[in-house]
């Protein structure tokens, strides 16, 4: 494998975690309460349990308090709303994360909108997404924020580049498209209804896939020396972890690429940690400089 082609999300995330750890050590030295995150999990979705475990480990490593609240998938929507409102009013909780997906009888949008903006660590509430579109970046959704951080670290130019995103979710595709537009990239967003998808993907200077299908993007779909960012986390035919991109198939053709695992996943968690610290600063009315 040509390591010069690898966009190492794990390495970049560790650099961010070191800076966050230093800030929290300063907080501890002043005998102040450390940042606190509460994660709410409904049901026992295996993937969700793994994601939560990774977030909790990352929090504990840097010194963030992480409390996980587990509820059965039979919980009433009204009961969940009350739990979130109690957390909204708890001054010792800086950040709230409701792990998606939620059971069908619960309106995910309604639940997300119940989280106060000042504790919305995922950055999914309408106020935060609206500010993102306007270019106000106090807090950003984790995955788009992490992707921009990766591109910035590797000094990958965005202005004037044609970026093609596969996927239009509110979590990745839409906010990421706005961030890239604000960075002066030319952005095309493709989705399940896009006809002749490869016509668009072959034009991409930077291709970002967030479609959730194992090895969906092949070498025939990209142009020579494209930069590829793989957001997908899937299982292949042998039950091995893989992304949306057929990594081995495209590696010789790309200029740079994020691996799965070790690419977008770690940097998303690092971005989440940054958001927790930012929300803590709001709660404490203090200001620590991260960079």
What keyword list fits this structure?
291 residues; Rossmann fold; 3-stranded parallel β-sheet; disordered C terminus; THF_DH/CycHdrlase_CS; EC 1.5.1.5; methenyltetrahydrofolate cyclohydrolase activity; histidine biosynthesis; hydrolase
Broad structural category: alpha/beta
Strand percentage, roughly? 5-15%
**C-alpha Rg, in Å?**
19 Å
The end-to-end span amounts to 33 Å
The H-level CATH homologous superfamily of the largest domain, spelled out, is NAD(P)-binding Rossmann-like Domain
Oligomer: single chain
Lateral arrangement of strands in the main beta sheet: 5-4-6-7-10
Basic shape: globular
Look at the structure and give the mean pLDDT: 95
The largest pleated sheet is described as: 5 strands, parallel
Quick one: CATH class of the largest domain?
A: Alpha Beta
Poorly predicted ranges (pLDDT <50, ≥5 residues)?
286-291
Give the SSE string. Answer: HEHEHEHHHEHEHEEEEHEH
Give the helix level as a range of percent. Answer: 40-55%
CATH-derived architecture of the largest domain: 3-Layer(aba) Sandwich
Q: How many beta-strand elements?
A: 10
CATH topology name of the largest domain: Rossmann fold
InterPro entries: Aminoacid_DH-like_N_sf, NAD(P)-bd_dom_sf, THF_DH/CycHdrlase, THF_DH/CycHdrlase_cat_dom, THF_DH/CycHdrlase_CS, THF_DH/CycHdrlase_NAD-bd_dom
Family: Belongs to the tetrahydrofolate dehydrogenase/cyclohydrolase family.
Binding site for NADP(+): 167-169, 233
EC number: 1.5.1.5, 3.5.4.9
């Amino acid at each position: 494998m040509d390591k010069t082609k690898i966009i190492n999300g794990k390495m970049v995330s560790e650099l961010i975690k070191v800076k966050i750890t230093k800030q929290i050590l300063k907080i501890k030295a002043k005998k102040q309460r450390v940042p606190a995150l509460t994660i709410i999990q409904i049901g026992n979705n295996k993937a969700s349990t793994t994601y939560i475990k990774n977030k909790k480990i990352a929090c504990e490593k840097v010194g963030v308090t992480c409390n996980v609240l587990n509820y059965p998938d039979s919980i009433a929507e009204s009961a969940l709303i009350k739990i979130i409102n109690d957390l909204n009013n708890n001054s010792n909780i800086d950040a709230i994360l409701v792990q998606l997906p939620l059971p069908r009888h619960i309106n995910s949008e309604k639940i997300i909108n119940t989280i106060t903006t000042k504790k919305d660590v995922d950055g999914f509430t309408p106020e935060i997404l609206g500010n993102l579109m306007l270019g106000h970046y106090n807090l950003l959704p984790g995955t788009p924020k992490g992707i921009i951080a990766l591109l910035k670290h590797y000094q990958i130019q965005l202005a004037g580049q044609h970026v093609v995103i596969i996927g239009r979710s509110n979590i990745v595709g839409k906010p990421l498209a706005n961030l890239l537009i604000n960075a002066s990239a030319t952005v095309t967003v493709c989705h399940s209804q896009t006809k002749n998808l490869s016509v668009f993907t072959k034009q991409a200077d930077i291709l970002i896939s967030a479609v959730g299908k194992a090895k969906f993007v092949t070498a025939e779909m990209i142009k020579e020396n494209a930069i590829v960012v793989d957001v997908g986390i899937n299982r292949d035919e042998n039950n091995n972890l893989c992304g949306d991109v057929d990594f081995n198939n495209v590696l010789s053709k790309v200029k740079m690429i994020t691996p799965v695992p070790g690419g977008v996943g770690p940097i998303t968690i690092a971005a989440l940690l940054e958001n927790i610290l930012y929300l803590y600063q709001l709660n404490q009315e203090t200001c620590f400089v991260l960079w």
